[in-house]
Design goal:
Length: 236
């Protein structure tokens, strides 16, 4: 099985820092200095949003949360690994964040199959092989419930320092082009593909000081954890 990374995201939650309202313009200016292709999407008292279409990268920040989102579907070298640390440092320093409540890293992958049936069969192998509840409703006395099949699973695990949430389901990869598409071009649009989707969120359990916080190492460690430890669990 070959897994393709669709997108990555970082979410940092912190206590209300109302300096956001005074400093949001300064932060936006500094962000453009970090990534010149950033363009303002929206600015409001509740949130500011900048995005780089060229790099498939979005930054949303507010008085209580920072979100960094990387679209990896057409980017060979995602900039999230490189930019997460300096952007976090900028936000923390400018609005005086000293502690964070939660640091999360979400990664979404897909694996392609020739047919919808093949994707469903791989999903069945995972749920039956790992005993993930595919037969839960079959023990019901209600025939309506007995006839239902599992098509998505969501699992949540927590340790002393980290938590992991996994979501696995089948789906379709759809290729769309906005606007009027000439017939000649339409013939070259790839057909929809049957896929298996693996959505993983790795997050800290408790709050921590921003001093010494290595966001870039957190991201690299999570990617390695998923690709070397979790992938083998779903490749049955």
């Amino acid at each position: 099985m070959k897994w393709h990374l669709d997108n990555m995201a970082v979410e940092v939650r912190y206590s209300d820092e109302f300096l956001y309202w005074d400093k949001t313009g300064l932060i936006a200016k500094e962000l453009v200095g970090i990534l010149p292709s950033f363009a303002l999407v929206r600015a409001s008292p509740s949130e500011t949003n900048l995005a780089s279409a060229k790099m498939g990268f979005t930054c949303r920040y507010s008085y209580k949360v920072l979100n960094l989102i990387q679209d990896c579907s057409f980017i060979d070298n995602p900039v999230l690994y490189k930019l997460a640390a300096p952007i976090c440092a900028l936000i923390f320093d400018t609005i005086q964040v000293t502690n964070i409540a939660r640091l999360g890293n979400r990664l979404t992958y897909h694996c392609c199959f020739e047919t919808v049936e093949e994707a469903a069969e791989q999903f069945r192998r995972i749920t039956e092989g790992k005993d993930l509840g595919c037969n839960f409703l079959s023990t019901s006395e209600d025939p309506r419930l007995q006839s239902m099949s599992l098509n998505e699973i969501s699992l949540n695990f927590k340790g002393d320092k980290l938590g992991v949430r996994l979501n696995i389901k089948t789906g379709k990869q759809v290729f769309n082009i906005n606007g009027v598409v000439p017939e000649e071009l339409r013939r070259h649009i790839p057909e929809d593909k049957a896929i298996l989707i693996l959505d993983i969120d790795v997050f800290t359990i408790s709050g921590m000081s921003v001093e010494g916080l290595a966001v870039d190492e957190f991201l690299k460690s999570n990617t390695k954890l998923v690709e070397t430890r979790i992938f083998p669990l779903v490749e049955v």
